[in-house]
């Protein structure tokens, strides 16, 4: 039916004899396209019109064109014929035609190729790569403000290439502890030779001083930002690094989007902590936040404090903490340095999520605790020191030598040692039993040596307090020995009674054997 409709369209007569051959070539191509349509393919009339427009462009000759016609599937799902020609460089055209050429190059780069087959469209892929490199140079060296049409076309080209359907390769043991996950090799996107340059174009465009924020914010809107945040879950670390930089640039340049970006990152953290515990880009998001938190004005808003309590502190809960602990610790420390009153909140939050059976995670907590305590004032320290040093005492008593050793290293930090010295009357009675048992019985020589050093510090600092603690420990130890002896005697009596009863039952059974009915 479509063929019949196309047949009814009156053919244009050639204006000159010179165009007759070209018209016959176009007519043959049109018939080929019409045949494709009539066979029931997905190739649409819009693509046909675009093909005709290309063939009729001034200066283009379909018979002598350097490019090729390829059948490609666009992002909207429609199959179409697209022309891939080597467009002239920006240096080869006058300034008045550069913007028009820029548009044509953007449209050329809006076609996405399949990289799963390396032997497919090799020439066209290379043309696109070279064209993308030219776009990078053009955006970088732009002298005038980008027009709204240019902004729209750039965002459209970037969206078509970046916002794609992920095709992750199958991976085993995806949900594992952070240490094991780090040993796995990341999945690399096969399309990265093109994607990297697309990201570079967009990064240069966002960072350019010629990009007008008022015009651009209509196209780089909240929906666009959400798609970028979805992409940061990519398994390719190279892509996550670009997205981190771009999101940071957008946050710095588009002030209207700042609250929305913070809220969206919050939602990503909530879903990660309380639902999935699966996300590849938590470290990158925390690196963005580290820079954002550093720029928070004082006094801190209540919104920012709630973000610390509800989003950052619970991030200590997941098993894969090792994947993002360093930027998380930096964010936490930034809050304490900006507002020292938050130290009590942070330390109690760490105690709430303190690991029980994961020794490597416990060492990470002790590292972070040292950084927080360095920025803690005496008044805030006194509010949380009792539960804090009960936990440190448990770490000193740990049979895992790295945990015990890391806890003892806290005394090598001068600000922390000063806080302990000032509050020794409360802290030493809590720590003394763990120190005394370590000095006597710990299996690791390094831990015993460090324990004796810490013990000597307290003894030299306050001999009277040290002797009181030693006497109390000896009394407690004596009572424990007495209690242990009583329990052992009671168990012996129970065993003797059980043995007598068993012997009595045996004799009775021997005299009166049981006979079933």
What keyword list fits this structure?
mainly alpha; two-stranded antiparallel ribbon; elongated; 517 residues; ARM-type_fold
In short:
The protein is mainly alpha-helical.
Description:
The chain is mostly helical. Helix content is 66%, strand content 2%. The protein is built from 23 helices and two strands. The protein has helices spanning 2-8, 20-38, 45-55, 95-108, 122-140, 148-162, 178-183, 192-207, 213-216, 222-231, 237-253, 258-276, 282-294, 302-312, 325-338, 343-352, 359-374, 378-396, 401-408, 414-422, 424-441, 445-461, 463-511; strands at residues 68-73, 79-84. A two-stranded antiparallel ribbon has the order 1-2.
- Measured between the Cα atoms of the first and last residue, the distance is 97 Å
Order of SSEs: HHHEEHHHHHHHHHHHHHHHHHHHH
Provide a count of the helices: 23
Radius of gyration: 36 Å
**Chain oligomer state:** single chain
**What are the low-pLDDT stretches, counting only 5+ consecutive residues below 50?**
12-66, 168-183
* Residues in helices, as a percent range: 55-70%
The coarse overall form would be elongated
Structural class: mainly alpha
Mean pLDDT: 81
DSSP summary, beta strand count: 2
**Strand coverage percent:** under 5%
Major sheet summary line:
2 strands, antiparallel
The strand order across the widest sheet is 1-2
């Amino acid at each position: 039916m479509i063929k019949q409709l196309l047949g009814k369209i009156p053919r244009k007569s050639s204006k000159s004899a010179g165009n007759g051959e070209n018209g016959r070539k176009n007519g043959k191509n049109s018939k080929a396209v019409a045949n494709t349509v009539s066979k029931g393919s997905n190739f649409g009339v819009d693509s046909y019109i675009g093909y005709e427009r290309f063939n009729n462009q001034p200066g283009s000759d379909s018979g002598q064109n350097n490019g090729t016609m390829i059948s490609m599937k666009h992002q909207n799902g429609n199959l179409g014929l697209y022309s891939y020609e080597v467009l002239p460089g920006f240096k080869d055209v006058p300034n008045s035609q550069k913007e028009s050429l820029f548009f044509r190059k953007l449209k050329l780069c809006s076609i996405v190729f399949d990289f799963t087959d390396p032997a497919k469209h090799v020439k066209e892929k290379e043309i696109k790569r070279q064209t993308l490199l030219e776009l990078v140079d053009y955006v970088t060296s732009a002298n005038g403000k980008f027009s709204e049409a240019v902004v729209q076309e750039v965002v459209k080209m970037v969206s078509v290439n970046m916002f794609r359907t992920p095709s992750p390769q199958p991976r085993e043991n995806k949900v594992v502890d952070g240490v094991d996950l780090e040993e796995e090799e990341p999945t690399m996107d096969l399309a990265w030779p093109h994607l990297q340059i697309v990201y570079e174009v967009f990064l240069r465009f966002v960072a350019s001083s010629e990009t007008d924020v008022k015009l651009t914010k209509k196209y780089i809107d909240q929906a666009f930002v959400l798609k970028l945040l979805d992409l940061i879950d990519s398994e390719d670390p190279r892509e996550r690094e670009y997205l981190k930089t771009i999101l940071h640039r957008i946050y710095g340049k588009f002030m209207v989007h700042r609250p929305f970006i913070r809220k969206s990152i919050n939602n990503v953290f909530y879903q990660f902590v309380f639902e999935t515990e699966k996300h590849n880009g938590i470290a990158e998001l925390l690196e963005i936040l580290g820079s954002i938190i550093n720029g928070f004005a004082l006094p801190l808003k209540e919104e920012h404090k709630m973000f610390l309590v509800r989003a950052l502190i619970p991030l200590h809960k997941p098993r894969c903490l090792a994947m993002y602990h360093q930027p998380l610790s930096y964010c936490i420390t930034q809050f304490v340095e900006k507002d020292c009153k938050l130290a009590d909140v942070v330390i109690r939050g760490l105690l709430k999520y303190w690991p029980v059976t994961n020794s490597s995670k416990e060492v990470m907590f002790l590292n972070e605790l040292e950084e927080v305590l360095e920025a803690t004032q005496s008044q805030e320290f006194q509010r949380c020191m009792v539960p804090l040093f009960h936990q440190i005492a448990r770490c000193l008593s740990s049979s895992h030598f790295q945990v015990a050793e890391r806890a003892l290293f806290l005394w090598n930090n001068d600000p922390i040692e000063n806080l302990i010295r000032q509050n020794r009357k409360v802290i030493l009675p809590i720590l003394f039993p763990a120190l005394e048992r370590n000095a006597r019985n710990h299996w690791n020589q390094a831990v015993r040596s460090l324990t004796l050093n810490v013990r000597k510090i307290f003894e030299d600092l306050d001999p009277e307090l040290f002797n009181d603690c030693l006497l109390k420990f000896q009394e407690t130890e004596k009572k424990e020995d007495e209690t242990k002896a009583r329990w052992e005697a009671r168990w012996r009596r129970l065993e003797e009674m059980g043995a007598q009863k068993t012997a009595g039952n045996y004799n009775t059974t021997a005299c009166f054997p049981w006979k079933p009915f």
